[in-house]
């Protein structure tokens, strides 16, 4: 543990070790492996092509994004955030967990519902992780220690906010709207973004195999980076669990509850979980929930409502939906099941 994140070499070595473990696991289970559904392969979207000056190239990649959103609800994004920025952010998080002691970190234990930085330690059968949650936007909050944290994480948020606006444009277009639609509808210039920085123990140190239990996340979408592959699993439309192995130079994007609500269920927010079974070493991830502005009322858009598609979700402000299940804003817990309108004939 003292050696974590010494640099690229360490990053590559850990990934190699984990991918060997996965290979071993896959080779050792029965021949049903050939039945793994190739259609479950997580799509990759090239961010730069969404804005290509070549019309055909742009149209093709927007179509690809449309399929990824509708048929998966999650995808890898390349050429969005530079690898050096991602590595810098992961190093900042690793420094936070390594260069501070637990007493210093517990300074951020829940104080009041309006906390803008919150720390927690979960170590029981249902959840195994240490986390730091911070409000990243519209105002960036960060712990004062270590000194390296503010700049490294801030750089990731700055770049990711640009990518968020770009994805909002592209997704508005594929939904059939003008490109500023989502940006205005969610008032993204004041969008409420919360970042969860997670440290998961290796499986031999955890109290059970669950890192984070099954859930969906509120908001427009979640961007996720991790220092080693393995752990995060997504439930596909077809009901299969797929493991998120983020390729180098990519980040992972998962559509959130409020895009599902806005699109009246055309795009889905997918259930996911973190399983520690194959973790030989600890793992760091950063899941940033990019949300609408807290005061924005989110309801199914008229374009997605007709006689055969009545509104399937109740509308309310983003803030109300975050507080609906008794959580604080910074907890960013899903309340999607409470917002669904039961189907009636
Ligand atoms: O750590 C991960 O891979 C996922 C974490 C997550 O789903 C969350 O924080 O909402
Ligand atoms: Fe999540």
Automatic annotation (TrEMBL):
Q: A Pfam family name for this chain?
A: 2OG-FeII_Oxy
What the entry lists under InterPro entries is as follows: DIOX_N, IPNS-like_FE2OG_OXY, IPNS-like_sf, Oxoglu/Fe-dep_dioxygenase_dom, Plant_2OG-oxidoreductases
The yes or no answer to whether the keyword Lipid metabolism is present is: no
List the keywords (alphabetical): Iron, Metal-binding, Oxidoreductase
Protein name (record): Fe2OG dioxygenase domain-containing protein
Q: Into which family does the record put it?
A: Belongs to the iron/ascorbate-dependent oxidoreductase family.
List GO molecular-function terms, semicolon-separated: metal ion binding; oxidoreductase activity
Q: Domain Fe2OG dioxygenase, which positions? A: 191-292
């Amino acid at each position: 543990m003292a050696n974590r994140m010494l640099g690229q070499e360490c990053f590559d070595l850990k990934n190699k070790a984990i991918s060997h473990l996965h290979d071993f696991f896959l080779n050792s289970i029965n021949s049903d492996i050939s039945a793994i559904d190739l259609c479950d392969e997580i799509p990759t979207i090239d961010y730069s092509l969404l804005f290509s000056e070549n019309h055909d190239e742009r149209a093709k990649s927007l179509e690809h994004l449309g399929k990824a959103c509708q048929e998966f609800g999650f995808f890898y994004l390349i050429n969005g955030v530079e690898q050096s920025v991602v590595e810098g952010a992961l190093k900042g998080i690793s420094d936070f967990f390594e260069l501070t002691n637990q007493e210093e970190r517990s300074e951020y234990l829940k104080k009041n519902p309006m906390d803008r930085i919150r720390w927690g330690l979960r170590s029981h059968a249902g959840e195994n992780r240490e986390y730091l949650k911070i409000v990243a936007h519209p105002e960036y909050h960060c712990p004062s220690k270590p000194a390296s944290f503010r700049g490294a994480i801030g750089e990731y948020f700055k770049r990711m906010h640009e990518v968020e606006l770009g994805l909002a444009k592209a997704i508005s277009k594929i939904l059939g709207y003008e490109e500023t639609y989502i940006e205005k509808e969610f008032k993204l210039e004041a969008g409420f973004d919360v970042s969860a920085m997670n440290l998961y123990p290796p499986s031999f140190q955890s109290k059970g195999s669950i890192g984070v239990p099954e859930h969906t996340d509120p908001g427009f979408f979640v961007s996720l980076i991790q220092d080693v592959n393995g752990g995060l699993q997504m439930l596909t439309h077809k009901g299969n669990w797929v493991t998120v192995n983020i390729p180098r130079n990519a980040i992972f994007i998962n559509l959130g509850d409020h895009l599902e609500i806005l699109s009246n269920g055309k795009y889905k927010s997918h259930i996911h979980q973190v399983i520690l079974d194959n973790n030989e070493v600890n793992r760091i991830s950063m899941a940033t929930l990019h949300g609408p502005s807290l005061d924005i009322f989110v309801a199914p858009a008229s374009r997605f409502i007709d006689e055969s598609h009545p509104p399937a979700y109740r509308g309310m402000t983003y803030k109300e939906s975050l507080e609906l299940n008794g959580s604080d804003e910074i907890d960013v817990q899903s309340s999607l099941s409470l917002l669904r309108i039961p189907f009636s004939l």
